[in-house]
Amino acid sequence: MRLFVALDIPEDVRGSLAALSAQLRPACKDARWARIEGLHVTLKFIGETPSENTAKIQSALASIPPRVAIPMFFRGLGFFPNERRPRVLWAGVEAAPELAALAAAVEVALEPLGIPRETRTFSPHLTLARFDTPRGLAALHTAIEKACPPEFGGATTGEFYLYQSILKSGGAEYTRLSTFSFAGREPK
After folding, report:
1. Please, how many CA atoms are within 13 Å of residue 121, restricted to the half-sphere of its CB?
2. Dihedral of the CA atoms 47, 13, 119, 52 (nearest 10)?
3. CB within 8 A of 15, min separation 6: which ones?
């Protein structure tokens, strides 16, 4: 099973991103555009895992201590690793330090199961497109400049999820396996 831990985004944010994506797609047809219904804020990509380990992962995630709900704002666009040779077009996620603390808590909870910690700094984002070639990037940059200021909305979350990702020819398909509430519950 291919697993990851993520936060969902609200439907109004999805709607704003769908409108932007529809504006930008024609400018860069060589990009692999993300399915809007699958957008999420990844806290931890676990990767391929034997299905018999799922219960241990769920138990470890359930042990994460309670914390406050996390407000998030979705705004801005950027590229990883950079604008000149991008591999990913992303929409930004601005949040209080509690979001990075939650991602760190997920890392700590999963490490005893042999799931290595991420070495890169946590950088919350929504992946909109991936690039294998620079074809169409100049037109995409122009389309981004013409687009309205990229403000997509906000949300406050008190839950995160364990997802299974199944890779298909039309893009990844996600199935929610578990829900973990972290705000508004009593400490264990």
Report:
1. 2
2. -20
3. none
* Distances in whole angstroms, Cα of residue 14 to Cα of each of 152, 157, 184, 188: 8, 15, 26, 34
Per-residue pLDDT reduced to its tens digit, 173-188: 999 999 999 986 544 4
Q: How far from chain centre, in Å, is Cα 132? A: 20
Strands in 88-95's sheet, in edge-to-edge order, are 32-33, 125-130, 88-95, 70-80, 151-157
125 is catalytic: yes
Say what the pTM is: 0.91
Residue identified by tokens 């950079």 is 82
Assign 3-class secondary structure to 88-142. Answer: EEEEEEEECHHHHHHHHHHHHHHHHHCCCCCCCCCCCEEEEEECCCCCCHHHHHH
Q: Are 121 and 100 in contact (CB under 8 A)?
A: no
Is the bond leading into 81 cis (omega within 30 degrees of zero)?
A: yes
DSSP H/E element including 180: strand 173-181
Which residue among 60, 125, 131, 163 is the active-site one?
Answer: 125
The pLDDT tens digits of the residues spanning 124-167 come to 999 999 999 888 899 999 999 988 778 999 999 999 999 999 98
Catalytic residue among 17, 40, 79, 93: 40
> Is 141 a known active-site residue?
no
